[in-house]
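Task: sequence design from structure.
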């Protein structure tokens, strides 16, 4: 190994350019001793536990080089680790809990063919994981997969520095399993309640988390929430969204509705955006546009936007290949023709206070599959041209992206 000494600013610049290029970082550490520490920091800034061999190898490295552990900022645990036959998993988690002083993000992603319950996880592994979350430096916790359905939401109360929660999960959950998991987990909060800054929720079991964070005496609260994102393609938690929005109405500045939300059919009635007095950014993502999604745009145009709103984002994606099986004479196809009128009504004069409107319109068409004739092709082309004409109405700060993909 060479012993060339290079200026620190040059080293930092090179490491910054390489970012997550692991082979290049390793090569740098063999060129000069000066690269060794920066490369080590970058290589171990994020660690992922995906299988038995990787877990055991990482545990061996960190046990012999404890000086690396303070550089770890993100921990990702994949589903196979909870059922893997290894003795290193729990000790590794405990090692991180004791020494990972810079750990900011913890992500748990569980997608298994065989469903498991939190109550079935070996006790030493569950306790070690909770100890990781107790680290004062942890600010973000993300949970994905069916495993989430049996996950005790009270576990979020152990993180004293918690600011961000991502909670996406489906799958079956039975009351007796949840009760069994809650009995195994007994939180011992010893700090003041935390106020979340951002929350991303979705799936059938998101309402459990909503009930937890909106409870009067919860250790995790949303009264000062700034960013809210909802992903609910199957309408499993939309009825609970209003509870979060109402609880954070005086602080919420950004809301993203991702996928097919029928806001007018929420359990508590239409969501009144005017109650969100500090809302600055609102985004609707509507892939696979159907009649229901079109009616949502009509609702948005007619309901009016809060005076505080500065940025409105609308992402629309027409996918004829997957949804419009009835062809050009279907109701869905005819709905494309007046899409420009719907968008124009949203950016009308009554919404002049909105400083920036971001519209992204994507069109996927398979003429061969649906046998569209020249008139059908011309109709779709005219829609694109009319949508382009909206651009002057968006103002100097407006943006419009029209992307058309034709599959023949």
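Answer:
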């Amino acid at each position: 190994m060479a012993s060339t000494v290079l200026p620190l600013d040059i080293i930092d610049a090179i490491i910054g350019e390489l970012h997550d290029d692991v082979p290049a970082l390793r090569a740098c550490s063999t060129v000069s001793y000066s690269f060794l520490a920066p490369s080590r920091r970058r290589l171990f800034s994020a660690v992922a536990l995906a299988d038995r061999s990787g877990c055991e190898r990482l545990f061996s490295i960190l046990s012999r080089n404890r000086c690396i552990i303070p550089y770890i900022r993100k921990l990702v645990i994949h589903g196979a680790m909870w059922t893997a036959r290894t003795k290193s998993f729990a000790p590794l988690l405990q090692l991180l809990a004791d020494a990972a002083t810079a750990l900011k993000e913890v992500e748990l992603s569980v997608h298994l063919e065989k469903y498991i319950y939190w109550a079935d996880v070996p006790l030493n592994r569950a306790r070690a994981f909770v100890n990781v979350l107790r680290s004062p430096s942890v600010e973000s916790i993300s949970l994905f997969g069916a495993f989430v359905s049996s996950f005790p939401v009270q576990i979020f109360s152990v993180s004293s520095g918690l600011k961000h929660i991502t909670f996406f999960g489906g799958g079956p959950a039975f009351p007796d399993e949840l009760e069994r998991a809650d009995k195994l987990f007994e939180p011992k909060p010893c700090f003041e309640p935390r106020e979340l800054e951002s929350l991303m929720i979705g799936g059938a079991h998101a309402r459990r988390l909503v009930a937890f964070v909106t409870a009067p005496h919860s250790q995790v609260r949303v009264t000062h929430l700034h960013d809210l994102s909802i992903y609910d393609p199957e309408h499993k938690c939309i009825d609970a969204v209003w509870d979060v929005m109402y609880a954070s109405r005086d602080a919420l500045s950004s809301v993203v509705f991702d996928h097919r939300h029928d806001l007018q059919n929420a359990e508590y009635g239409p969501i009144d955006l005017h109650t969100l007095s500090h809302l600055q950014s609102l985004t609707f993502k509507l892939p696979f546009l159907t009649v229901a999604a079109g009616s949502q745009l009509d609702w948005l145009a007619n309901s009016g936007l809060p005076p505080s709103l500065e940025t409105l984002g609308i992402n629309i994606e027409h996918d004829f290949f997957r949804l419009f099986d009835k062809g050009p004479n279907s109701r869905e196809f005819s709905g494309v023709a007046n899409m420009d009128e719907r968008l124009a009504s949203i950016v009308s004069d009554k919404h002049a206070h909105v400083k920036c409107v971001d519209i992204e319109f994507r069109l996927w068409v398979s003429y061969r599959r649906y046998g569209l004739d020249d008139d059908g092709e011309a109709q779709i082309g005219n829609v694109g041209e009319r949508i382009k004409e909206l651009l002057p109405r968006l103002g100097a700060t407006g943006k419009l992206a029209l992307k058309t993909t034709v599959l023949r």
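The chain has 16 helices and 14 strands.
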